[in-house]
Write a structure and sequence with these properties.
This protein is of the alpha/beta class and 179 residues long. 24% of the residues lie in helices and 32% in strands. It has helices at residues 12-29, 45-54, 105-115, 174-177; strands at 5-10, 36-41, 60-67, 80-83, 93-101, 121-131, 142-148, 152-153, 169-172. The two termini are 16 Å apart.
């Protein structure tokens, strides 16, 4: 698996430091509140688990499954919600936790769907925000890293459901995903 990686972009130590800082920021900003954190499965699961341990206040957690990629390296542009949140979010402060923000097609549609449930506030925390050089329909409120437009895997990020378990984020070799 490691031989498929061109280079390591973010080490496990660097990731832990960034997630801790983000958890501290959310703790400060939501002091006295009980936010609902929604993990967008599957990709955000590792980031989500680490992030909620760094938030030092009461919060509720739930999961949502939204897909627009399938087994491809490019978004299909069509959102499929396979699992909605179980927790009631109307009138609540909600933070959607996502692994990566690139085209924002999936996240934009997801936020529109969630906003119809009338949360008190709706914010986005992403592990990685890709610098694609164009205006996205959604911007993250909280970000660990801003990355260039490379095909990244590890720490929950996948290619065809593989590489999620790498303890770092690396650039996948081009010949792996262009075959």
């Amino acid at each position: 698996m490691e031989h498929d990686i061109e280079k390591v972009l973010y080490s496990g130590e660097k990731i832990a430091e960034a997630v801790k800082k983000l958890g501290e920021q959310i703790t400060r900003e939501y002091k006295g509140k009980v936010p609902v954190l929604l993990c967008v499965l599957k990709g955000a699961s590792l980031f989500f688990a680490d992030l909620i341990r760094e938030i030092k206040l009461q919060c509720e957690v739930d999961f949502i499954i939204a897909k627009s990629y399938g087994m491809s390296s490019q978004t299909s542009g069509k959102l499929r919600i396979l699992k909605e949140p179980d927790v009631e979010i109307a009138g609540r402060d909600v933070i959607v936790v996502e692994d990566i923000l690139d085209t924002a097609v999936t996240l934009s549609a997801l936020l529109h769907t969630l906003s119809e449930k009338q949360p008190a506030s709706l914010k986005v925390a992403v592990f990685l925000d890709k610098n694609l050089g164009y205006k996205k329909p959604v911007n993250a409120d909280y970000t660990c890293f801003i990355s260039e437009n490379e095909f990244l895997v590890g720490y929950g990020l996948d290619y065809a459901e593989r590489y999620r378990n790498l303890p770092y984020v690396g650039v996948l070799k081009r010949d792996i995903y262009q075959n």
